[in-house]
Amino acid sequence: MMKLMVENLRAALGGSHVLHGVSLSAEAPGFVGLVGPNGAGKTTLVRAIANLISFEGRIEIDGCPVAELEPRVRAKRIAYLAQGAESHWPLSVERLVALGRLPHLEPFRGPGPEDEVAIERAMALADVTRFRHRDVLTLSGGERARVLLARALGVDAPLLLVDEPVAALDPYHQLGVMEVLRAYVAQGRTVIAVLHDLSLAARYCDRLILLDDGLIRADGAPGDVLTPENLRSVYRIEALIGGEGQGFHILPLKRVE
Description:
alpha/beta, six-stranded mixed sheet, 30% strand
């Protein structure tokens, strides 16, 4: 089973320090939600784990530093769906999802039977099979978002990083995406998701990591992290908190200055 270790991670963007010594670990299976206000460092953290930015500190997958992994090996172990990801080429949905299999293909070889199975499974999970022959540029923003999720699922990586995967979706498909991510975890994988909808985070994630100003302020079960005190001190809001499990909900009521 996959094990992720992040130790004393520090990162800067545009000359400004964003992460200030973040340490965490995660083992499969698990659904980890990264929550916190805008600018807390959530996206920077997942991009560092994916080895997409420079950083100081140590990030390991199964005991091996991610920066030392051969790119193709790293692409098999870590799938990443960026915030606001887009497609700018007139590809069919099926061909776009198939791009997720590139790390598994030998040079100049097309997808084999195993790849075809993974592509079909990813399209079905993301509920985009009926669009398979459509040009992705003809789809709505929400539909394209699900196609790009399918591409990430198609990698079949033990670690899936997703940045605001429900941001462009209607409530029906928001729930659908969260269910897909839970199903992926049930296959023995790890999902780390940046989420702003605290109710969805509380209902679907096994664990939440609350970031603020580049530091971890709380880490644990949703009910232990999304407390009135943390919502007040980190988010600067008063909120109505109720329910448990699939009924867990957080309703922001007012700002606290």
